[in-house]
Each structure stands twice: as C-alpha cells, then as structure tokens.
Specification:
With about 110 residues, this protein is mostly beta strands. It contains one helix and ten strands. Strands 1-10-3-8-5 form a five-stranded antiparallel beta sheet. Strand 6 and strand 7 form a beta hairpin. The longest helix has 4 residues. The chain starts with a strand and ends with a strand.
C-alpha cells in the first residue's frame, strides 16, 4: 500500500508502482474537483507508438460521477470533493511501476491498496 500527496502527483508526477491483481485507488480530496491520470511513458518524440506498453487495459469499477476516460496508454478520472475510489484489475499479470506515471491536479491524497 502506498500513499501519494498532491505535491508528488503535480506537474511531471510520480513514477508508478507495480500493479497486479485488483487495486483500489482511494482519494481524499478536501478541495474542489480535481483530476487524476495514470499515463504510460511516451517515446523520445513524446508520443505513443507500436513500442509503447498498453498498461491500462483491464477491468475498471468506477462510479459515473468520476467521469473516467481511458485508452490502452492512459486512464483518467475526475476526483470529486470528499472521499472517492475506483478499482482497477490489469489485464496483464503485472504492470511495472517504471513504465508509467501518476499525475494529478488539485490538493487530494491518493492511496493505492
């Protein structure tokens, strides 16, 4: 289980952590609506291409109010004020934390368990 502060998620973000099996992403947001994104590392030109890993294929359980947007390379949600969460089960046995970044706006904390 890891906890991230808004300072760690802001700007360039934080290197991810290894994901396998079901993971629960819990947000504690004392401020207004914010955003959270998990993003696969881009190539040297700043794009996704055929060599990019498809880290975010899998099963999500997300409330409608979180307005999830996802592709094979990125997954984003709206983080509402208060406590909210979503679940993600990767399609692959493991998603290596060194292959993606966690990014966010707003003043929430994130716990992945």
């Amino acid at each position: 289980m890891a906890t991230y502060t808004y300072q760690q998620l802001y700007g360039s973000g934080s290197i991810g952590e290894n994901l396998s099996l079901l993971k629960l992403f819990t947000f504690t947001n004392p401020s207004g609506s914010s955003y959270f994104t998990m993003e696969t590392n881009r190539n040297n030109q700043g794009f996704y291409d055929s060599s990019s890993l498809t880290n975010f294929i899998g099963t999500y359980v997300v409330s409608e109010s979180m307005g999830q947007v996802s592709s094979s390379y990125i997954s984003s949600v709206v983080v509402q004020p208060g406590v909210s969460s979503f679940k993600f089960t990767p399609a692959f046995a493991i998603v290596s934390g060194s292959n993606y970044y966690l990014r966010g706006t707003g003043m929430y904390s994130l716990t992945i368990s």
